[in-house]
């Protein structure tokens, strides 16, 4: 009899514990479902394009050629600009760096609806092949030449020769300036021969090699010509020694 009572007591106790665990499990599950629903609702709200649209643009940087309108037009080429949460910054940065005058773009989002765009412009070093621009690192970019605010040397050369041609101009132009001259045009042709046109109109034919020696030879000749330099059309220095001088005719 006693054993029967103990057994029944244990059964009731076990049943009570099972009910308690079941109730606790159901409560915990309800809490998880509630949290999940709140998270889903919050994320859906944040990604809704009508809730957090990126509608403000702040442009920063020392800029002379790029305007806020240029950036807006670049972004307008995207199918659409997403929300604060959904828009990929790399996509915006790629579009900004496609603007011809932009050398580098850094973009970040500011809660809740702002895009901050920091731009660095190309620094013009020269006019390249008559239709493009060369920056201070010798990189070609397609900025509007008509917008350039000062005179620059005109450099010409085959594709990918920009850094080389710019380096040669930087090396030799100070030497010409010492004589009161400037290189107005420097050309490297397809045969890799060099030609210089000075700001007084004299054309120098230098050939492919021995630039140092040939330019030094020009300086010696130029000093000896004196006032006769006004009648010089070109000087051909493509010789081992000496030079050929072309003169303007008396009529010219």
From TrEMBL:
GO terms for cellular component: cell division site; plasma membrane. One of its GO terms (biological process) is FtsZ-dependent cytokinesis. The keyword Lipid biosynthesis does not apply. It is a single-pass type II membrane protein. It is found in: Cell inner membrane; Membrane. InterPro entries: Cell_div_FtsQ/DivIB_C (IPR005548), FtsQ (IPR026579), FtsQ_C_sf (IPR045335), POTRA (IPR034746), POTRA_FtsQ_type (IPR013685). Pfam families: FtsQ_DivIB_C, POTRA_1. It comes from the Bacteria. The chain crosses the membrane at residues 21-47. Residues 52-122 form the POTRA domain. Keywords: Cell cycle, Cell division, Cell inner membrane, Cell membrane, Membrane, Transmembrane, Transmembrane helix. Essential cell division protein. May link together the upstream cell division proteins, which are predominantly cytoplasmic, with the downstream cell division proteins, which are predominantly periplasmic. May control correct divisome assembly. Belongs to the FtsQ/DivIB family. FtsQ subfamily. Part of a complex composed of FtsB, FtsL and FtsQ. This is Cell division protein FtsQ. It comes from Vibrio metschnikovii. The gene is ftsQ.
């Amino acid at each position: 009899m006693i054993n029967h009572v103990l057994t029944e007591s244990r059964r009731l106790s076990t049943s009570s514990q099972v009910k308690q665990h079941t109730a606790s499990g159901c409560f915990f599950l309800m809490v998880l479902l509630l949290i999940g629903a709140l998270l889903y609702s919050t994320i859906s709200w944040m990604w809704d394009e009508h809730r957090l649209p990126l509608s403000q643009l702040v442009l920063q940087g020392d800029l002379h050629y790029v305007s806020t309108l240029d950036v807006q037009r670049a972004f307008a080429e995207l199918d659409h600009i997403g929300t604060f949460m959904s828009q990929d910054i790399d996509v915006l940065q790629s579009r900004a760096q496609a603007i011809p005058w932009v050398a580098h773009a850094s973009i970040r989002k500011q809660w809740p609806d702002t895009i901050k765009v920091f731009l660095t412009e190309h620094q013009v070093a020269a006019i390249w092949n008559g239709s493009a621009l060369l920056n201070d690192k010798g990189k070609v970019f397609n900025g509007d030449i008509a917008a350039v605010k000062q005179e620059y040397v005109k450099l010409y050369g085959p594709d990918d020769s920009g850094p080389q041609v710019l380096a040669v101009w930087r090396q030799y132009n100070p030497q010409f300036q010492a004589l009161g001259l400037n290189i107005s045009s420097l050309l490297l042709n397809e045969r890799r021969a060099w030609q210089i046109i000075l700001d007084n109109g004299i054309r120098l034919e230098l050939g492919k090699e021995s630039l140092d020696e040939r330019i030094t030879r020009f300086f010696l000749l130029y000093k000896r010509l004196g006032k006769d330099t006004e009648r010089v059309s070109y000087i051909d220095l493509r010789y081992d020694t000496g030079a050929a001088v072309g003169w303007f005719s008396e009529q010219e």
